[in-house]
Amino acid sequence: MAVDLEVVVVAVTKMTSQTEQAVAEHQLTHETSKASLTMLLASAGCALLAGLPNQAQASELDNWDFDAATLIYAESDSRVTAAEPVISATRNFDSETKLNLKLALDTLTGASPSGATPSDQAQTFARPSGRGDYDIKAGEQPLDDTFRDSRAAFSATWSAPINRDWAYSAGGYLSSEHDYRSLGVNGSISRYLNEKNTTITLGGSFSSDSIDPEGGLPIGLSAMAVPGSANFDQDFSNSRQGSSDDKTITDFLVGVTQVINRRTLMQFNYSISASDGYLTDPYKIVSVIDDSSGDNYGGNYQVNGQNLYIYEKRPDTRLKQALYWQTKYQRENSDIIDFSYRFMFDDWGINSHTLDLKYRWQLGDHYLEPQLRWYSQSAADFYQRYTTASDYQNVDEISADYRLGDMDTYTVGLRYGYRMAGGSELYARLALYQQQSSGSSGFGKLKEQALYPDTTATMLTVGYKF
Amino acid sequence: MQQDNLHGFSESKRLLSIAKMNNPSGHPMPELSFLAADQSSAGFLLQFQAMASTCELLIDLPESHWALAEQLALQAVRETWRIEFKFSRYRTGNWHDKVHQKRGHWQNLDEESARLIAFADQAWQLSDGLFDITSGILRKVWRFDGSDRLPEPEQVATLLPHIGRQKIQWSLPEDDGVNSKPAQLYLPEGMELDFGGVGKEYAVDRVLGLSLSLLQKAQPDVACSLLVNFGGDIACSGPRANGEPWKVGIEAPDREGKEAALLSLTGGALATSGDSQRYLLKEGKRYSHLLNPKTGWPIENAVRSITVAAPTCSQGGLISSLALLQGAGAENLLKQTGLKYWLLSA
Questions:
Q1: Distance (Å, rounded) from C-alpha A49 to C-alpha A240?
Q2: How confident is the model over B240-253, as pLDDT tens digits?
Q3: Taking a C-beta distance cutoff of 8 angstroms, is the pair A319, A272 a contact?
Q4: Radius of gyration for chain B, computed over Cα atoms and rounded to the nearest angstrom
Q5: What dihedral do alpha carbons B201, B202, B205, B211 form, nearest 10°?
Q6: Residue B283 has pLDDT above 70, yes or no
Q7: B99: distance to nearest CA of chain A, Å?
Q8: CA-based, 20 to 30 A from B255: which of A353, B28, B72, B304?
Q9: In this predicted model, what pLDDT tens digit does every residue of A18-35 receive, in sequence order?
Q10: How far is it, in rounded angstroms, from Cα A39 to Cα A9?
């Protein structure tokens, strides 16, 4: 959601000969209403000069801040690789009024899991477009290698104060790829209280997305046409229901940012997000497994001598709610500890927890920031790694998309930054990501297949702020 | 008017004339010169005396702009002398004097005084009471002349009841659109306000600000860049007109006149707080001129001098003073601000 609060680094104060404990108590009882040193500096300095300029009128370029970065993402086994250059440009009108423009382009290539299970037999799948097919060897993960996409996203956000106590932001968002388009608006309003030590923000966004998948929209739960069969064209067209569909996403957020003391800043958010419309992934399928006793127990269920796969189908509404808590603490040596926890739950039955810990280690003009992140998710009610011959006609909704299953992910990252003379900053971040899924291990022959392969990925970001 | 001076570059100099009413402290007349060491770094230099310092304004304009340079110079001098006189503790009939005549009564404050008091007040809060505009009274018993003459503890103790920002009361101006009420101050008998810690930096910012406002109105046909330097408290409008940084020397406190470091400044301000020559030395112990308003005695383990780079000179001065008052904790505070600083330890 685009209205996440900007978290100001808490900056800070002084040394006294008092003990840590005394300092902490003192700050909590007497100084909670005081702004941090840098914030205070800025406000006190401005107030003293009562609006008199302190620098020459900046040239137009000096009013802009740029952040250009490229992210490279590579999954192991060369499954998916992505490159995403992003450029963000901010035009500062004064210290609180700004326009941010952001352009991101990403290119994804590689193969993604189709949802089907691996098998002791080779499998052949129709391509989503209906033109051609691809083969998966026995024992290998069914990956759809037609996965290739380019996306361009553009957003603009205007933020400005209304008066001393209120501020607002308004923005728009547009992203486009060959089969997907998203158009959104967002806005927020903030109220400062308690000498700006408390900020309450109400935000909302609305996006309208349309999906126009290759080969048209599959009918959920219908059988995938068998490549090479005599009536493929007829079957393929029977499995389609028009060419495009859409969905809307409405988000609301209420957040409180609180300066706890001059070293500590906390933020609490509650957000609710309602999606309505076509929420299914048109490229995902589900294997139907033979559960009748015999040689093929646990193998792919066959109809007319051909494996049966059905298209996934998800509910057409989703209501997500999330609670978020972040704490930033600046140590006396200026290092910053940033901890956050997010709990998300939705009416699909997914609960997730995210813990994120960053430590920014200041080394003069350089900094190092190690990061640890753990994410754990429980499966959606309709998630099934596969369905069975006796069940598949009774399901109303089903998806074998691993992103809806039980999973844990771990991220270990290290960011390095170098602040150069003149205020520009060069930074690089390397992160290693591992995803582990789990679930029922099947029966019969299916037991021998790896149904929940781990995914590991490497992410490298290099950026320059100027 | 054109003459060659001994250094070999062409220089022309004008003595500016300031009306007596604008020179209440009776300073010598300021000098405005055009210096042309070489083509690319030519510019005007204004020099005058105020606040016990040599004050300079460097104006990056070509020689054809004498009139504008003179306008800027006159404004700078008048403003500096105005601030100096208004807040001086040593004058009679000025603002400072009048405020102290009315001790023991509520009195109205003009906006500028209220802003300065508010600024000093924030420093007082941030420093846990170490930065206190009522502590100047301690000068009655402390004279930092390099000698070993420490005051008697009883002398210091008798002054303490008259020190403490919490003992004065004041209110911000109020204006709800219908009624307005000016800022007000209640200064108890026996207490004294001292703007020595903020006045010079404030004047530097005011001179730069007024000069920039004047330039915005005058819209000269060439780029103009400015640097204000009041005895080491410095603010500039940006890089020099030729795009180069300003080169500024900061002084080592124990080697007066010798530049300890040459800094490049392309924007913002530098302010220095330090005890330079002002200290007492007794039985091998050095007593810094920085006094703790709570005890009346010098801050222990004070560093010698701190220079801070900040957006404005007042902000730099505030941070360098706050840091200095932390004694051995100075560097820690400086690090936390994220500002560039230069520190000379004792």
A1: 69
A2: 888 888 887 766 54
A3: yes
A4: 21
A5: -120
A6: yes
A7: 20
A8: B28
A9: 223 333 333 322 332 333
A10: 10
Q: Which two tokens stand for residue A268?
A: 């609490």
What pLDDT shows up at residue A46? 66
Chain B hits for A50, CB-CB cut-off 8 Å, are: 111, 115
Task: Reduce the DSSP state of residue A103 to 3 states and report it.
Answer: strand
In this structure, are B27 and B149 located in the same domain? Answer: no
Q: State the Cα–Cα distance between residues B191 and B105, nearest whole angstrom.
A: 12
pLDDT at A6: 26
Below-70 pLDDT ranges, chain A:
1-46, 56-62, 78, 95, 147, 421-422
> Which among A451, A417, A456 is positioned nearest to A434, based on CA atoms?
A456
Both tokens assigned to A296: 């093929």
Q: CATH number for the domain including B150?
A: 1.10.3980.10
What is the pLDDT at residue A25? 30
B154 and B108 in one domain?
Answer: yes
List all residues of chain A from 422 to 441 with a beta carbon under 8 Å from chain B. 422
Identify whether A421 is part of a domain. no
In a mutational test of the B interface, the residue from A12, A34, A55, A195 whose CB has the highest number of chain B CBs within 10 Å is: A55
Task: Tell me if B20 is assigned to some domain.
Answer: yes
Whose tokens are 């609006």? That residue is A51
Measured between CA atoms, the residue of chain B closest to residue A54 is B209
d(CA A127, CA A129): 5
Please indicate whether residue B291 or residue A384 has the higher confidence score (pLDDT).
A384
Q: What pLDDT digit, counting tens, does each position of B119-152 carry?
A: 898 888 888 889 999 998 888 888 877 778 888 8
| Chain A positions in Cβ-Cβ contact with residue B225 (cut-off 8 Å) | 56
Identify whether the C-beta of residue A123 lies closer than 8 Å to the C-beta of residue A135.
Answer: yes
pLDDT at B86 over 60: yes
Report strand pairing: B169-171 vs B183-186. antiparallel
Count CB neighbours of A146 within 10 A.
17
Does A452 map to a domain?
Answer: no
Residues sharing a CB contact under 8 Å with residue A408, sequence separation 6 or more, in sequence order: A374, A375, A376, A377, A435, A436
Secondary structure element (H or E) that encloses residue A292, with its range: none
Say if residues A411 and A343 touch (Cβ distance below 8 Å).
Answer: no
CB contact under 8 A, B266 and A422: yes
For tokens 């209420």, name the residue: A254
Count the Cβ atoms, other than its own, within 10 Å of residue A444. Answer: 16
> What pTM value is reported for the model?
0.62
Nearest Cα to Cα of residue A203 among A1, A32, A22, A370: A1
Q: What are phi and psi of A39, to 5 degrees?
A: -60, -45
Nearest to B338 among A11, A15, A54 (CB): A11
DSSP state, residue A96: S
Domain region containing A342: 20-62+80-348+378-395
Residue A142's closest CA among A456, A449, A458, A457?
Answer: A449
Q: Give the residue numbers spanning the domain of B148.
A: 95-186
Tokens 């903020």 correspond to: B198
Domain count, chain A: 1
On whether any CB of chain B is under 8 Å from the CB of A38, the answer is yes
Any B CB within 8 A of A332 CB? yes
Sequence-ordered list of residues with C-beta below 8 angstroms from that of A233, at least 6 positions apart, any chain: A130
Residue B267 and residue B239: Cα distance in Å, rounded?
6
Q: What integer is the mean pLDDT of B48-54?
A: 92
Strand A285-289 and strand A387-388: the pairing is: parallel
Residue B40: band (very low, low, confident or very high) from pLDDT cuts 50, 70, 90: low
**Residue A466 falls within a domain, yes or no?**
no
Write the DSSP assignment of B239-297 as a string of letters: S-TTSPPEEEEEE-TTSTTSEEEEEEESSEEEEEEE-TT-EEEETTEEEES-B-TTTSS
Q: Tell me how far CA of residue B328 lies from CA of A362, B83, B281, B304, in angstroms.
A: 21, 33, 19, 11
Instruction: Kindly determine whether residue A334 and residue B314, on different chains, have CB atoms separated by under 8 Å.
Output: no
